[in-house]
Design a protein that fits this description.
By secondary structure, this protein is of the alpha+beta class. Helix content is about 15%, strand content about 20%. It has helices at about 50-60, 155-160, 160-165, and strands at about 1-5, 10-20, 25-30, 40, 65, 95-100, 105-110. The chain has a 3-stranded antiparallel beta sheet with strand order 1-2-3, with no helix packed on it. It has a two-stranded parallel sheet with strand order 4-5. It has a two-stranded antiparallel sheet with strand order 6-7. The protein is extended.
Length: about 170
């Protein structure tokens, strides 16, 4: 499955089928939304069973007439579908084993650090020290500037000055 949140319908299911007996490949693409079920291919290709269960589990795309459509990769109590683009990166709940209760417990997600959206092209949030070769990224203010690892203008002068080589 593929999630295109800006497209209507939002989801695309892709079947890549191979027949060894006939030496043929067939690609079938089906576009669907969250409510419209996709006909199951398990009647024709039994191997589609696990793939359709995986798509149901991770994207929430429903397959009609599927013989056993249930979660396959996530826990039965899991909320949401993690490969959707609108699913939060941190998830909804945190799962951990509690030694005192001797069982698995669900808790709200606690972030130890505030979420940051790094903008490396911003002069206020960007990289302060660039490594040699990073000037190719196109920041003219940092070209030729010496960094902690060397590679600045002073190193170029040393290589071109024959008197400095004799002293060494």
């Amino acid at each position: 499955g593929v999630d295109y949140p800006d497209r209507s319908p939002r989801f695309e299911v892709v079947y890549n089928l191979l027949s060894l007996a006939h030496n043929n490949r067939v690609r079938v693409k089906i576009r669907t939304d969250e409510e419209t079920p996709v006909p199951s291919a398990t009647g024709v290709f039994s191997a589609a069973n696990w793939w359709e269960r995986e798509v149901w589990d991770l994207y929430g795309i429903y397959f009609s007439e599927h013989p056993d459509l249930r979660r396959i990769l996530t826990d039965y109590g899991f909320e949401g579908h993690p490969l959707r683009k609108d699913f939060p990166l941190t998830g909804y709940v945190e799962l951990r084993y509690d030694d005192e209760q001797k069982r698995v417990v669900y808790e709200p997600v606690k972030l130890t650090q505030e979420y940051r959206d790094f903008d490396f092209l911003s002069p206020w949030e960007g990289v302060q020290r660039m490594l040699p070769g990073d000037e190719k990224a196109g920041d003219p203010d940092l070209d030729g500037e010496a960094s902690e690892t060397g590679g600045g203008e002073d190193d170029k002068d040393d290589a071109e000055d024959p008197d400095k080589k004799e002293d060494a």
